[in-house]
Design a protein that fits this description.
With 479 residues, this protein is α/β, with parallel strands linked by helices. The chain folds into two domains: 265 residues, Aldehyde Dehydrogenase, Chain A, domain 1 (3-Layer(aba) Sandwich), CATH 3.40.605.10; 191 residues, Aldehyde Dehydrogenase, Chain A, domain 2. 38% of the residues lie in helices and 20% in strands. The chain has 15 helices and 19 strands. Helix 2 packs antiparallel against helix 4, helix 3 packs across helix 4 and helix 3 packs antiparallel against helix 6.
Length: 479
């Protein structure tokens, strides 16, 4: 596999720079490439190019913008295998999961393009005779999109495509951990499409690059997916210019298993929602509250299913690959050790796997913890790794109370065969989204958004697209 040359993409041109940040293969710790890091002047140049392009782009009819979005989707469809290979190399996803991340955005392009005719304003009555009030939706202007490492292409397009169809220009800053897949995507778009210069820009580098984007007066909106800690920093930095922000942040998703749940189905769905992408998904089921009547049976089935998970080199397409970095691996290890010190029991896993494949790289075995207590950090704080703490409860109501006792509020899960229990529990959970009797995975036409410290984001659906617009009131006096 040939990796793309890591360069910035600004105003329709590729721009080189001195090596600044190494990109590692998380399965082998091999250095894949070194990327340049944009300085403040280069960031300003990218933002200026975006502003110049946006004026003409925003004036185009929505249907013309939609056609470009569809064209982007076609390029992505033709590039699934190549971009997927890059994601495997730098992020550690199994091959089918990496390809799925890319191919899913093809349907996103189709959905986003449909908004070319659907971004509407309102006409409201005036208090004056012979006057109308028009509420128009206009683009926000230049959008700075800060992308996480866990879905480096999926989240990128999840932000870029709605922003484009709404009439904005975008400057993308990928994670310095996984920048090569973004470069690969931009090179494909540059080779196949005649996009307006400056409409899409790519700046590489570390957190200082993101900070320059956030604090620039040229930035009209910041959209970011990442940790709650970084999201708070961005919100504080953007406040200096009153720049609006859209923040999709961390989660600690509870899964509630009622006494009447289909245990086999619940085990399969919860496990999928825990070990997908090695547990490095903000919507992962991070803590499981099981009714005492079925707690023992659920734990037995869940441990057996966990022990069947295949770990291996991600290019061979196992069930689960490595964690993305040494830092993430260390966080997972410490969380398990702390839980055991506080009284939790390791039912399976709890260590680095043995064997030649696992001698190097950032590997951790899928882990199940029994005797977990709500006071433990492994239950209360986000753990971006394949660790499932099981908490026994006496009722669904108790589970809801424990689930809501959290600073997070992104995703949640409910497993029950009783319709009333399902609906009441979904109503009472203080979370932006709830999955009933199914595993993770939101729809483009839905709205993936967090409550509490899980942010104020959401790029999906009607409300995601409209977030990339701003309202102008126009008073028409025709007397």
């Amino acid at each position: 596999m040939e990796l793309p040359k890591p360069e910035h993409y600004i105003d329709g041109e590729w721009r080189a720079g001195p090596d600044a940040v190494d990109v590692l293969n998380p399965a082998t710790e091999e250095t894949l490439a070194s990327i340049p890091s944009a300085d403040d002047a280069l960031v300003e140049e990218a933002l200026a190019a975006a502003a110049a392009a946006q004026a003409e782009w925003g004036a185009r009819p929505g249907v013309e913008r939609a056609e470009v979005v569809r064209d982007i989707g076609e390029v992505v469809a033709d590039s699934v295998d190549a971009i997927g290979d890059v994601i495997v190399a730098e992020q550690g996803k199994p091959k089918s999961t990496a390809d799925g991340e890319v191919s899913a955005t093809v349907t996103l392009a189709d959905y986003a393009a449909g908004w070319g005719r659907r971004i509407e304003g309102d006409i409201v009555p005036s208090d004056n005779r012979d006057e109308e009030i028009h509420l128009q939706r206009h683009p926000v202007g230049v959008v700075a999109a800060i992308i996480p490492w866990n879905y480096p292409v999926g989240v990128l397009l999840r932000k870029v495509l709605p922003a484009l169809v709404a009439g904005n220009a975008v400057v993308v800053k990928p994670s310095s951990t996984t920048p090569l897949s973004a470069v690969s995507l931009f090179r494909a778009l540059d080779a196949e499409l005649d996009l307006p210069d400056g409409l899409l820009n790519l700046v590489l580098g570390d957190g200082d690059v993101g900070n320059a984007l956030v604090t620039s007066r040229r930035t009209d909106m910041v959209t970011m997916t990442g940790s709650t800690r970084v999201g708070k920093h961005i919100m504080e930095a953007a406040a200096a210019n009153l720049t609006p922000v859209s923040l999709e942040l961390g989660g600690k998703a509870p899964a509630i298993v009622a006494a009447d749940a289909d245990l086999d189905a619940a085990v399969e769905d919860v496990l999928t929602a825990r070990i997908t992408n090695a547990g490095q998904v903000c919507t992962c089921a991070e803590r499981v509250y099981v009714h005492e009547d079925v707690a023992e049976a659920f734990a037995e089935k869940y441990v057996a299913a966990t022990e069947s998970i295949e770990l291996g080199a991600p290019e061979t397409d196992p069930d689960m690959g490595p964690q993305v970095s040494e830092g993430e691996l260390e966080w997972t290890r410490r969380a398990v050790e702390s839980a055991v010190e506080d009284g939790a029991t390791v039912l399976t896993g709890g260590a680095r796997p043995d064997g030649g494949t696992f001698e190097r790289g950032f590997w951790y075995a899928p882990t199940v913890l029994g005797d977990a207590d709500p006071s433990m950090d492994v239950v209360a704080e986000e753990v971006f790794g394949p660790v499932t703490p099981l908490v026994t409860v006496s009722s669904v109501e108790e589970a809801v109370e424990l689930a809501n006792d959290s600073r997070y509020g992104l995703s949640s899960y409910v497993f029950t065969d009783d319709y009333g229990t399902a609906m009441k529990t979904a109503r009472d959970l203080d979370y932006g989204e709830t999955y009933i009797n199914r595993t993770l995975g939101e729809a483009w036409q839905g709205h993936h958004i967090g409550w509490n410290e899980s942010g104020m984001g959401g790029d999906d659906g009607k409300y995601g697209v409209l977030k990339y617009t701003q309202i102008k009131s126009v008073y028409h006096d025709y007397s």
